Amino acid sequence: MDESVVVSPDWVATRLEEPGVRIVDVRDPWEYDGIGHVPGAVSVPFDSYRDESDVDRGTLPGPAAFGELLSGVGIAPDDTVVAYDDTHGVFAARFVLTALEYGHDDVRLLDGDYSAWNRAHETTTDEPDLEPTAYEPDPLAREESPLVGLEAVEDALARDALFVDTREEHEFAEAHLPGAVRFDWREVVDDETRRLKSGGELEDVLAAYGISRDREIVLYCNTARRISHTYVVLRALGYDDVAFYEGSLTEWLANDGEVETGLD
């Protein structure tokens, strides 16, 4: 597992006092305040870094809004940022994807979640002292974005790319992109440890669905939350040809895209 993408609780625990290492808690504020959090973590709730307008609900918040958000919690562009939640990392993965898209070079996902951290490491309810920064996102910093739009998805369908749908079975049965395979994003998580399965186990799980490094892969769900987790896991495993359909099925249906139904 590539530590530039996903890091263990022990990795975080040994670096809590290092300058430039910032921990981001994306749970609800009441969880951060009332249940406790990783020492030194700042609160950046999930709803704060997605577009909540009626026009484009659930998608990226825009660089200006994201920059203002990170400035307020004292994060600088050259910081090493590690994000976590208490839902196996699915909400934190969305933060990772957002930060990467807006040009943050070093952002990682905590392997596991708050519950996994709490089993072996101390927590606190103390809030860190924050010194606001002047964070300026740089969306053009990435040489190539994994995000693709409607036209690119149509082209990928014509090329017979592998479309991976990470939604629930009933959602998939109701409507999915032609030829898509359903892959429950939670299959990569060990229910007992709440952490990701071992590298070998992950490869076996992915192979069972035909998800391999020699395929062009396009991920989608409804509003791009669940595919964030799968995207981060594939990056950590070294998959290179992975596209992220930000509009997902919501946009596809709104544009009368062709769909299939059922589980076959």
TrEMBL record:
Q: Which InterPro entries match?
A: Rhodanese-like_dom, Rhodanese-like_dom_sf, Thiosulfate_sulfurtransferase, Thiosulphate_STrfase_CS
* This protein's record includes keyword Transferase: yes
Q: Which UniProt keywords are given for this protein, alphabetically ordered?
A: Repeat, Transferase
Q: Does the keyword Cell inner membrane apply?
A: no
Q: Which SUPFAM superfamilies match?
A: Rhodanese/Cell cycle control phosphatase (SSF52821)
Query: SMART domains given for it?
Result: RHOD
Would you say which domain of life the source belongs to? Archaea
**Molecular function GO terms recorded:** thiosulfate-cyanide sulfurtransferase activity
Q: Which residues belong to any copy of the Rhodanese domain?
A: 17-126, 157-261
Task: Please give the start and end residues of each transmembrane region.
Answer: none
Pfam families per UniProt: Rhodanese (PF00581)
Record-linked PANTHER family: THIOSULFATE SULFURTRANSFERASE
Q: What is this protein called?
A: Sulfurtransferase
Native source organism of the sequence = Natrarchaeobius chitinivorans
